[in-house]
Amino acid sequence: MFVISSRFLRIWQRNFAVYRKTWKVSFMPPLLEPLLYLAAFGLGMSTLVGEVSWRNRSASYIVFIAPALLSVNMMYNSFFETTYGSYVRMYYQKTFDAMLATPLFLEEIITGEIIWGATKSVIASSIMLFIISLFGLIRYPEGLLLVPLSFLAGLAFASIGMYFTAVVRNIDLFNLPIFLFITPMFLFGGTFFPLDTLPGWAQALAWLLPLTHLVEITRAIAIGPLDGFALWNLLYLALFSALFFPLALVKMRKRLIK
Amino acid sequence: MEAVVQADALRKTFGTFTAVDGISFSARRGECFGILGPNGAGKTSTIRMIYGFSPLSGGSLHVLGQDVTSRRQLRKVKYRIGVCQQDNNLDPELSILQNLEVFASYFDVPRPEPRPDATARALDLLKFIALENRRDTPIPELSGGLMRRVVLARALINEPDLLILDEPTTGLDPQSRHQIWERLEGLRARSISILLTTHYMEEASRLCDRLIIVDHGKILVEGRPQDLIREHAGRDIIEISEPGEELRTFLRERNLRYDDLGHRLLIYCDERDQLYREVSGRYCRDGCTLRTATLEDVFLKLTGRELRE
């Protein structure tokens, strides 16, 4: 049904070539924004909050939220790449149209875009990981697992981002998934406070969301304990990608192939 | 002669709208074949099926001997054609040279060709479009005409057997248009097969060996530009401004072919001087010109003069 050859790498290379040209501008915001959050909440709030207990462990507030902000960084960088980034290439620059007049097929283009979105997650979170590691907020060697994790997480969020790109009527409508999906996850996905402080129904809702699972693994890697539960979180993210990746392909084909 | 494009009863429908209504034509190797028609006639829909952008709704279509409805054969076709779309869809963040190099990578043919070859080819093409001194210029700094030239060069990066041009000079100033035409004539001299859509008749007469005029998804005529002119518009045309009733009566009595546009009247004729002298001497009140018939006359005669959206 889908024809996907390794030619999708050409799209990745194209996006990387553009990134190399614009990296000085494009890598600052994804790096600075989480660091600002970390400074504001970690330094400002930690005196108010003190220690946070998580999975029967106690951690300072900044140690508690650092992995969450890393997860948010993975989500933002992949999701925004395949929403705004891909939409501009698809609709305004007509880059996909040009590619379709070459040996590439649409499925390869979309796959390349999604893999590129996942790569953006790896790039941004690796830089951030390096910096917060300097402050001793991540334990090692477990911390190295965060790099492959950022790719898997990026795949999940890039896939659903691409799905939205295929279905929104214009670029302003990305506000909807951002307000209804991204922002609630950012606030309630176990990021700034432990999930068990929420009422039961809200916890159940939170566990439906991908960021909750991502934060859970990231924290288990960064702080511990890294146990079997992380496998369930991983499975969730893998299934999420396995659902939205083909869905994005189907919807994109419906949108572009006329 | 071998056909580079062979369409048989080709159809394209969008819901209830029929854009291409069972057209059949064949473009031969080495010729420049034109698809002409007013806006919405089905030109772009046809060409999009040819380069594999749109699936067929019916009929059959072979490009370079391959059946484009088969994914495997379509991939082969896609390797061997160059497409110049209507939009200047270059990568704005990249320089001219990088645009060509990136495109070359999409055509990564299984030939043993190292990357430097792509660059060499790109540089050759920049010379061809006379932009070799601006290889590092960012795309947004280019004028529309220069962008078009880069798009043309990009379509040639894989040394295609068939070059497909969808309205290559729409929206360009006369200088840029002539620049493009000179390049295309250069390509014709190298006997690259070209498929061209346009609604500029001057462009079609100048470049096309053969052409079809389509409207409402159907082929109206097919032939060589000169043959079509002779057949449908005659050799010459007398154009009369503000024609009087006497002239109309005269034309009816003489049973001459003409088009009455109200404020203007066109007489299609073959015996130029005699009729012109007669008409201009007796019936010309405002302005009266004798000129050679063009493809535009054929086009307007066949597709009508009403505005298209």
Q: Measured on Cα atoms, how large is the radius of gyration of chain B? A: 23 Å
- List the helices and strands of chain B in order: EEEHEEHEHHHEHEHEEHEHEEHEH
Nearest-integer average pLDDT of chain A: 92
If interface size is counted as residues with C-beta under 8 Å from the partner's C-beta, which chains form the largest one? A-B, 23 and 30 residues
Q: In total, how many beta strands of chain A?
A: 2
* H/E topology pattern of chain A: HHEEHHHHHHHH
Query: How many structural units, i.e. domains of chain A?
Result: 1
CATH class of the largest domain in chain B: Alpha Beta
Largest sheet of chain B: 6 strands, mixed
How widely separated are the two ends of chain B? 38 Å
Structural category of chain A: mainly alpha
Question: How does this structure look, described?
Answer:
The complex is a heterodimer of chains A (258) and B (309). The model of chain A has no long low-confidence stretch (mean pLDDT 92). A two-stranded antiparallel sheet of chain A has the order 1-2. The longest helix of chain A is centred in the N-terminal third of the chain and has 32 residues. Chain A is 74% helix and 3% strand. Chain A has one domain. With 258 residues, chain A is mainly α. The longest helix of chain B is centred in the middle third of the chain and has 16 residues. Chain B folds into 2 domains: 227 residues, Rossmann fold (3-Layer(aba) Sandwich), CATH 3.40.50.300; 58 residues, Alpha-Beta Plaits, CATH 3.30.70. With 309 residues, chain B is an alpha/beta fold. In chain B, β12 and β13 form a beta hairpin. Chain B is built from 11 helices and 14 strands. Chains A and B meet through α1 and α4 of A and α2 and α3 of B.
